[in-house]
Write the structure tokens for this entry.
Amino acid sequence: MTLATSAEVVLDHGTGAKLSQELIGEIVDLLGEAYLGEMEDSATLPLPGGRIAMTTDSFVVDPPFFGNGDIGKIAVCGTVNDLAVVGARPLYLTLGMIIEAGLPMERLRQVVTSVRDTALEAGVHVVCGDTKVVGRGEADKIFLNTAGVGVFEREPLRMRHVRPGDRVVLSGPIGNHTVHLLSIREGLGFETRVLSDCAPLNGMVDELLAAVPAGAVRSMRDVTRGGLAAVLHEYAAAVGRPVRFDQAALPVQFETRMATDMLGIDPIHTANEGCLALFVDPAAEADVLAALRAHRYGGHAVTIGEVGTDEGAGVFSRAEDGTAARVDELLGAELPRLC
Amino acid sequence: MTLATSAEVVLDHGTGAKLSQELIGEIVDLLGEAYLGEMEDSATLPLPGGRIAMTTDSFVVDPPFFGNGDIGKIAVCGTVNDLAVVGARPLYLTLGMIIEAGLPMERLRQVVTSVRDTALEAGVHVVCGDTKVVGRGEADKIFLNTAGVGVFEREPLRMRHVRPGDRVVLSGPIGNHTVHLLSIREGLGFETRVLSDCAPLNGMVDELLAAVPAGAVRSMRDVTRGGLAAVLHEYAAAVGRPVRFDQAALPVQFETRMATDMLGIDPIHTANEGCLALFVDPAAEADVLAALRAHRYGGHAVTIGEVGTDEGAGVFSRAEDGTAARVDELLGAELPRLC
């Protein structure tokens, strides 16, 4: 019984014996040139001296397979993007999988293939992995974990570099990933017109940072769980200044707005998988926008607001009539398992 | 509602908003000096140049809380040991948690505290983490993932360094971890007399490698999933020589043998969390045993067999009457969720 002949994942694929070995062997084969491990207990890897970046994320996205992606793509993008936004060049990924017994083997193949394709696009290697299988009902289909290591070839970008007056730029529309997944979950019918934005953004970040003077991009975050609101609150608190944005400037696709209105949620609270919030020196704003827009993942980049020069944290939304409303930090986003 | 005031984990602890932030803040507080992150998207870390080791493991142990440990301790030991056995000095760990909504907050605290204590014992730092919460019935209490980075201050140990005639040494008894957990799961009553061997072994490995000439320890593995049988099969296949061991030499605690006999399982197929199988230059065998026995985790170290000088892979068990039996590689270990 092998990955090729077994139609679904069984508990013994996770117990460390022969079936486990076969499963792992076929996963490594599927990863192809995206894999750089050696099948020892740890991978041994060259690394330039200096400083590294490390990050990890677990992925429990529901559904794990959706219109224009799957949990494998998200797992690579999430970790690659976390490394890229601090200014590191992503190099190595680990891949941990927790699989519910009964998962069709074809689905596992799909996940690994997505990991491979996304890793190749991002220019990173999977260097080691781990596969656990739990019984039916003990997990929900498949959970992934990726940890990543990157190297710094530039000064790290840090939240504390943000200054009063800095512009806040979004690299793309918000809300699409959330609407796409909720639409599939709830049968809303938007999923063919609103696609997930899931993408590895390290290439775009690299081109951006090469195009503008060092320090012009103070800091950035990928806008994932908690949405834009959570990111802006995090920066406002860290900098001790208000962050203000124009409601009308928010890039939200028409159908996405329809869906979020219908669902009674605000796009600023939605999770995304391919959108950056950047804090930018005002003098470099035009160059940053131009560099982002030149990349296929940044075509809709836009300035949405700025960091206030007055004291006090807080996030404020400006309406078109000029009135400002405080954006509360949600206690919980009430939208679980979007990543 | 905070970790201190909420009695259990709720879905909103995982959605990236305020409750998530509070949960993460309290987890970081609990980790104390075992934490070395910066609450950015990636941790930024110094690293000597040269080569690094990287590894990852997911942990789905059932039950996650047992007599002398818990999933937090296992998650640190598993990854630290995987780095140590290739000859690397473990430095940094990532910590990913997937939590089933409804987990008592006190249990989460216990896990994080165990992570902290074990990381401090092992001399490693947690540098970043991630917390996801899924609904009731979508996971089984708590799953962890740790990825680790270590540096090489010595030549990496590799399976391919093993030579015909090398001695096979076990650093401690086998079967205890498996019997401890199965006893709790099945209510067998052995769990107070048979404790899990779960331990971070990097300290012992470091003392061992410092005590013997370079190359004397060719390669080693921690004997986890799949048990001793899987490890010996892996080496026999890699080296292309038979590996033989004496049944009577296997270190198995009396009560453990009683339990495995009762359960109809062979200790060589049981998972462990604090036992090494070492392949050793015969000239250094006595020094290796002495170095291991001098450490509190290696008091029962013993030679169990050797790598044959004849051709052909395979694992063979020798009985006291001198007869040898081929040890088959199990298709599946049929004992899921022991790590």
